[in-house]
Amino acid sequence: MEIGLNHYLILSTILFAIGLVGVMRRKNLLLLFFATEILLNSVNIAFAAISHYYGDLTGQMFAFFVIAIAASEVAVGLGLLIVWYKRHGTIDLESMTSMRG
Amino acid sequence: MLDHILSILIFFPALAGILGFMIDKKSIRAYGIAVGFVEFALSLWLWFAFDSNVSGMQFMENLPLIPSFGINYILGVDGISLFIIILAAFFTMIGIASLTKTKNEKNMIITLLFLQMTMIGVFSALDAIVFYVFWELSLVPMLYIIGAWGGPLRIYASIKFFLYTFAGSLVMLVGMLFMAYFFYQATGTWSFAILDWYRLILPESFQLWLFVAFFFGFAIKVPMFPFHTWLPYAHGQAPTIGSVILAAILLKMGTYAFIRFSLPLFPDASVFFMVPIAVIAIIMIIYTAMVAYAQKDVKQVVAYSSVSHMGVIILGTFALNVEGISGSVFLMIGHGVVSGALFLLVGVIYDRRHTKLMSEFGGLAHVMPRYATIFGIMLMASVGMPLTINFVGEFLSLLGFYEQSHILTLLAGIAIIVGAIYMLSAYKKMFFGNITKDENRELKDVNKRELLALIPLSIITIWLGIYPKPILEPINNSVEAVVQLMHNKSTTVEAKERIPNVSGIVISKTSTREAH
Amino acid sequence: MEKYLYIALFAPLVSSLFSALFTATPKKQFVGIVASFLIFSAFVSSYILLGHIMDGGEPIHVEMMTWMATGNLYIPFGFVVDQISVTMMMVVTLVSTIVHIYSIGYMDHDKGFNRFFAWLSAFVFSMMILVMSDNYAGLFIGWEGVGLCSWGLIGFWFHKDIATWAANEAFIMNRIADLGMLIGLFLVYWNTGTLQYEGAFAAFAQLDTATLTWIGIFLFIGAMGKSAQFPLHTWLADAMEGPTPVSALIHAATMVTAGVYLVIRSNELYSLIPHVGLFIASLGAFVALFAASMALVNRDMKRIIAYSTLSQLGYMFAAAGLGAYWVALFHLMAHAFFKALLFLGAGNVMHAMHDELDPFKMGGLKKVMKWTWIMMTIASLALAGIFPFAGFFSKDTILEAAFAEHHMVIYGVLLFTAGLTAFYSFRLVALIFHGEERYKIFGIHPHEAYRFMLIAMSPLLILAMIAGVFQAPFFEMVEEILGAAEYHIHSHVTLWIMLVGTQIFVGLAILYAYKKYGTWSSVPDGSSKMENSFIYKLLYNQYYIPYAYEEYIVKPYNEISEILWTKVDQKIVDASVDGIAGFFYSAGENTRDMQSGNLSTMLKWMVAGIIILLSLAVVFGLAARYSGEIMAILSGLGV
Amino acid sequence: MFEAVAFYLFAFLTIAMFFITVTTSQALYALSALAAGMIFISGFFFILGADFLGAVQIIVYTGAVMALYAFGMMFFDTTREVKEKKGNKFIVVGLATLSAVLVVAIFAAPMLSSNVLALYPAIEGAGNTQSVGLVLFTKYLIPFEVAAIMLLVAMVAGIVLAGKKMDLSLTLLNAEEIEQMDAEINKKVLS
């Protein structure tokens, strides 16, 4: 039975949903970063699928750039996380309320 | 000097108020009374110079403020607003004169002078924006008087008073802006002058919406039925002088504005809304009278009674004929005098016993005969006895409205019954019976300072009841002009026949002596 | 002639203001004297005016100044002295002069002596305005002024709680009637364009009967309140709390007759609407019987006389209703004299009995108070309508009028009531003056009233006896204005039978009363069978009407107003306003925790935002896609 | 037919792995599950013919990013139990599923999917990597350079942020020094 574009789209949406759940449930920031990774990957699948079914490479280009951004994002994110950890000794989400109000 | 008398009347108290800061504490009262007296003398001179046969505006002043939008500082006075201005000046003078020992008296007197400025400003302004500015400014001094010198719940009462009226007047401002925009669309020039607006004939659908907008602003100020709950709190918590000025003058702004704005600008809408507003007025009359009957605190009785009287005034205003409207204007002045006096009387007993609960008093007539007689006169005036000032107003208002609908007037007529019930039962609880509480036994009767305020008020109540002509004549001329304007401006057929064509009626002034 | 009009009108005002000056000060004898003198001067000028009118003089018309003039309405302070008003002026000033002199003696121990005269003279002044005014508005001024003074006088002894309650009840009940009157005034104004009597009466002819009926009914409602007719009658009995001179003047002679005066004054209106007249007559007859029945069993001397006044008022309204206006006016005049005499006599007895009112506790006062006994007996004879006295000429003419108009039912009721009247008035006289001195049980030693009080009462005594003589000149004076028709019963025989028949019937009633109560010895204490019978209890409690008013009008009014205040005003109207304010406050409060810095909640709000945007995208997408079909559906709905 | 089986297999495995990453309380399991998930996603890329992309995915993502996370995890001593927030699951799950449903509705609905037109049709015959290189260096040259700069910046930032006081190695310190350092940190935290 032929795999259509919709299958891939549904798959990426499910993954996106799981990523969202992860983002919202996690209190520990590191695991939250994991969830964002899932979000990004689900989007990549969608891009790849679309570019494949429409024979157009733009989708893949986007995928590349998404990966590039993800990588740099993780780098900077972890750096920040380390600095935060040094100052506060914890990377628990509750502690980050200095931007209140 | 005469053609700028209105500006002087407005800004003289304000200037005196500012100078008042320099006066030291001990002689501030004398200063206040002097300023009040000068202001009252000026207003009497205004009355003296006023030509009562002219029905239009007199002593007009025009100073461009923001010419690009047609907002200029226009003042003018006619029969309708003349006497309320004099009343405002009179009550401020009497208020300051009969001011009891209050803490930081200097601020009180200065606030009163500012209040006077705003009051006279409202009644003489003929430009919508200038009117609106004074309308809002009048809230501020009142807020301080209630908030600073009031009773236990004063903060709640003053904020409620301020926000409530302010919210209403914002809706009114929107209405004014729309009105100016329609005027601009129609004539191509911007103008906020009321007299220009009088010439603008709007289609009925616009009139309805604008009427509703203005109605909110004025209904809260009057206060009309659903919006009246701020009044008992305001009166309950305000000091005596605050209640006097609030009841005597501030309540009249709403009804005066109805006659100055709503009726002439939107004649068809007034006819359209006449019956619902009359129903509200009847509810106001009977409902608040019954609530007044259930009160335990004498000041609340008087507060609710003034809402009931305002109901009759609204009824008279929406009779949309000369008798009705001049009756309602007269009742405004009458109610101002009577309810002002009643609040002063309540103040007298409050200063002696520091309580307003009627159960605390009983058999005061034995101890304070003069107080009882003056209260009796004011009671009779408030109930609407003939030969008192209120009767003339109520009689004409009800007479006027009878032309519009018989049943509603019959219902409104219940006012004189329920009015008698709550006033008499209050009088009985306070003055009749034996003295039960021993604090009442050695109460002193009214002293000279209180009499200084009460005697003139009683004289006016009786004099204007017997011979209302000097006041009724100018009112009548100006009201005829307004009704004539409404008749010409009204577009719908129903409005044409509801509003009588005044020029058609030849005033049969020929007294019966010639008739014989 | 205008000079006398002004004296008659303003003398009472001057006396009232003069005595008002001394209200706060203790008793001053001269205040009473000066007041009485001024009222006497008003009486003299009224007498001169009467003379002027009697010998065919023109009615004097005077207009002082404009009162109200707006738009089409023009009300002057106008006064007219014509046949009707001069008679009323005579009655009012005569009775009030006598009452003023009487009360100098009656009130001499009272602390509020000066205040009493101030109120009494103010009452006379407002009564004069009521009577002399030439327009309905002036009449209304007098109407309310009289109500105010009766409030002041009933509640004169304001330390007594019942008195002030009675005063308030009287005032409020009068106000209810005044509302009807006010509506009548408006009707007159809007239909005839003026409130002046001549203008209004001239215009009445052109009006259709429907409006005329409405005007007649509303004016009669006003009259009903003031003259205490059926539904609004309970205040009269309670008004006896006031001092006796007050009851004599106000609740016997002058104020209660104001209603009759109104009907007589607007006779041209009521003659145009005979069916309303018939209603008035039947109501009058009913009230006559109703009041007389209540007087039969009452145990309070002043209330018995009050009910007899109510009954006689019923007679007057019956006469006026039937169109016999001059008869009503004549009966009004005669009644004023002997009823005032009766009341003042009762005042003497009350003083002697140290304010004891129950006739059963008196008895045998004939020996001690001889003159008062004579006066009260003659007054009662006049009241009963025995031949030589005034009552016969006025009351029997009413019976003749009813008979001539062929209203047999009314005639029968009035005849029966005449018998009842005779019975209860002589029951009273017998109990007080004859029989055993029951007052000794209570240790009271009565004394005759002051000499000058008795002298003051003597004119009334003479008038009660000879008033009948005036019937002929009175008729001839009033004929031209009141369109008085001479009631000729076709044959003299029936006339004689009727007259003699009533005399016998009334005589029998008197004898029966004497027989039953002449030798009364014990003081009934409610144990006897008769006192527990249903009828006795019904009549004694005035048919339970006051109880019904209290239970079904006054109490619910209190409860409703209490509910209105606590529930409606505070809970609904006020709460709704605070509710709006509260709503804004709580809305602000909730949104505040969006910025609480708690990242996870913020994330949730972010996702919620995403969802909202997505759903909007879906909705608008769908809308764009299917816009054609959607418009078709919406227009179908007539949006 | 073979392709369908592969797709469903990989789909099921990816969803399972990511589900574990999201719900597990053990950080280690989460990391390893995430890495496995990444591999399966590269599997998808290969199914879809985007070979170069699949390779990049494995190298960059699974290799570099996962390695970074491993270091991060060790550094933040999150090896122990990770306490989850108690908040009611209903909102979280509810919101997520709702958004998923909406996204599906948008794509599945016939509205948008019909009018997507291909902008750069791939040249048939040429290998995927070749065509990717061709497009990347003609059309997307500027974004490519910008991406390069971005990565550079990220690298520098990473070093600067994490590099401070890296010379201090906890393992070499003895106990008191650690307490003293902890006290110092707490003092700073409380200030």
What report would you give on this structure?
The complex is a heterotetramer of chains A (101), B (516), C (639) and D (191). Chain B has 516 residues and is mainly α. Chain B has a domain at 273-466. Chain B is built from 22 helices and 2 strands. Chain B has helices spanning 5-20, 28-49, 79-97, 105-124, 128-137, 139-149, 154-187, 194-199, 204-221, 230-237, 240-265, 267-293, 298-317, 322-353, 364-367, 369-383, 389-404, 406-431, 448-466, 469-489, 493-498, 512-515; strands at 58-66, 71-77. Chain B is globular and about 70 Å long. Residues 505-516 of chain B have low confidence and may be disordered. Helices cover 74% and strands 3% of the residues of chain C. Chain C has a two-stranded antiparallel sheet with strand order 1-2. In chain C, helix 16 (370-384) runs parallel beside helix 19. Chain D is an all-alpha fold. Chain D has 3 domains: 1-84, Up-down Bundle (Four Helix Bundle (Hemerythrin (Met), subunit A)), CATH 1.20.120; 85-125; 140-191. Chain D has helices at residues 2-23, 27-47, 51-75, 89-108, 110-113, 128-138, 141-163, 175-190. In chain D, helix 2 (27-47) runs antiparallel to helix 3. Chain D is extended, with a radius of gyration of 23 Å. Chain D starts with a helix and ends with a helix. At the A-D interface, helix 1, helix 2 and helix 3 of A face helix 1, helix 2, helix 3, helix 4 and helix 6 of D.
Topology:
The complex is a heterotetramer of chains A (101), B (516), C (639) and D (191).
Chain A: H1 5-25, H2 29-53, H3 58-88
Chain B: H1 5-20, H2 28-49, E1 58-66, E2 71-77, H3 79-97, H4 105-124, H5 128-137, H6 139-149, H7 154-187, H8 194-199, H9 204-221, H10 230-237, H11 240-265, H12 267-293, H13 298-317, H14 322-353, H15 364-367, H16 369-383, H17 389-404, H18 406-431, H19 448-466, H20 469-489, H21 493-498, H22 512-515
Helix pairs in contact in B: 1-2, 1-4, 2-3, 2-4, 3-4, 3-11, 3-14, 4-5, 4-6, 5-7, 6-7, 7-9, 7-10, 9-11, 9-12, 10-13, 11-13, 11-14, 11-20, 12-13, 12-18, 13-14, 13-17, 13-18, 14-16, 14-17, 14-19, 14-20, 16-18, 16-19, 17-18, 17-19
Chain C: H1 2-21, H2 29-54, E1 60-70, E2 73-81, H3 83-106, H4 113-132, H5 136-154, H6 161-192, H7 197-204, H8 209-226, H9 234-238, H10 244-253, H11 258-265, H12 267-272, H13 274-297, H14 301-321, H15 325-352, H16 370-384, H17 390-404, H18 408-433, H19 451-466, H20 471-482, H21 492-517, H22 529-532, H23 534-540, H24 545-592, H25 599-625, H26 627-637
Antiparallel strand pairs in C: 1-2
Helix pairs in contact in C: 1-2, 1-4, 2-3, 2-4, 3-4, 3-10, 3-15, 3-19, 4-5, 5-6, 6-7, 6-8, 8-11, 10-15, 11-15, 13-14, 13-18, 14-15, 14-17, 14-18, 15-16, 15-17, 15-19, 15-20, 16-18, 16-19, 17-18, 18-21
